[in-house]
Amino acid sequence: MPPVLTPKRISAALHSGPIMILTATTMMALQDALVKLLSAGLPLWQFFALRSAIALPVLFVLLRGNTTGLFRLALQRWALLRSALLVAMYIGFYAALPSLDLSVVAACYYTGPLFIVLFSALLLGERPSRRQVFAMAIAFSGVLFVLRPDGTGFSFVALVPVLSAICYALAAVVTRGRTVGIGPGALTVSLNIVFLGIGASGIVLTSMVEPRLDYPFLMQSWAPLHLNELGTLLILCGLSIAIHFALARAYQTGPTVTIAGLDYVYLPFAAFWALLLLGTVPSLSVVIGTTLIVLAGLWTVRVGRAA
């Protein structure tokens, strides 16, 4: 007989790792398309600082917990290391957005699950099967389709989101291996504290140098905030809180290899939002590469369940 669907079982299913990562990746694709829209008028450091300055009070209201206890957990060294890795990931990802299409940046960034499998094996002892390794090799071939390293369409800027992917993979392994006892709320608070600190530092440092008008997103300290940008910023604040709750829960619940495989679902959503909001149509090589990456990721999940 099939199990009875009680409210407790439904709640457990909705809070499981696979559901959480699917929720997070769907929202992340929308978030990144909105950031690309913002990148023309709002510097990255200002964006980091303002978003987290709004998010932190909202988080404390939503969590309704002991503020001192939340800060104590949020400032633990593993939580801060995870947060620093995620902030480095976002800097690399967003720094490439003004120069590359979102679909290209996303595909380069999604070498991340390959690194997650590698680091999980090396650091957590979660050994992938041969079929999972083969699936990851297919995904890597998809990335090569997007990058086109033969030089016909290759840009060294595309390597920046690959470095971003390494940071994401290390953050995922730290989340799984070292922060299981820290709740998603405290981890999200920790992330926003680091975002606020890095954003404020970036504003100070860029104000000391001559701004580059050809790349204001990374090299300008502050810009006037218009009403439409403020509205987008508030939406991004809400998305960020929801995304990082879901991500923390997904990787804490695991298994890491399965979550890494489902992470690839981000790619078709990124292409969808890029087309809808930015009017960007991906090239044939990007479509082929993205398809290979998604299929390999989904096969990794299937193999992991059958193991």
Would you give an account of this structure?
The protein has 307 residues and is mainly alpha-helical. The chain has one domain. 77% of the residues lie in helices and 0% in strands. The chain has 15 helices and no strands. The chain has helices at 7-14, 17-38, 44-63, 67-74, 77-96, 102-109, 112-124, 130-147, 159-178, 184-207, 216-219, 227-253, 256-262, 266-278, 284-306. Residues 1-13 have low confidence and may be disordered.
Number of domains: 1
Task: Please describe the biggest sheet, giving its number of strands, its sense, and whether it closes into a barrel.
Answer: none
Structural class: mainly alpha
Unreliable stretches, pLDDT < 50, 5 or more residues?
Answer: 1-13
Strand content: under 5%
Output the number of helix runs. Answer: 15
Residues in helix, %: over 70%
Helices and strands, in order, run as HHHHHHHHHHHHHHH
Q: How many extended strands?
A: 0
Helix-strand layout with pairing:
Elements: H1 7-14, H2 17-38, H3 44-63, H4 67-74, H5 77-96, H6 102-109, H7 112-124, H8 130-147, H9 159-178, H10 184-207, H11 216-219, H12 227-253, H13 256-262, H14 266-278, H15 284-306
Record keyword descriptors for this entry.
307 residues, mainly alpha
Quick structural summary:
This protein has helices at 7-14, 17-38, 44-63, 67-74, 77-96, 102-109, 112-124, 130-147, 159-178, 184-207, 216-219, 227-253, 256-262, 266-278, 284-306.
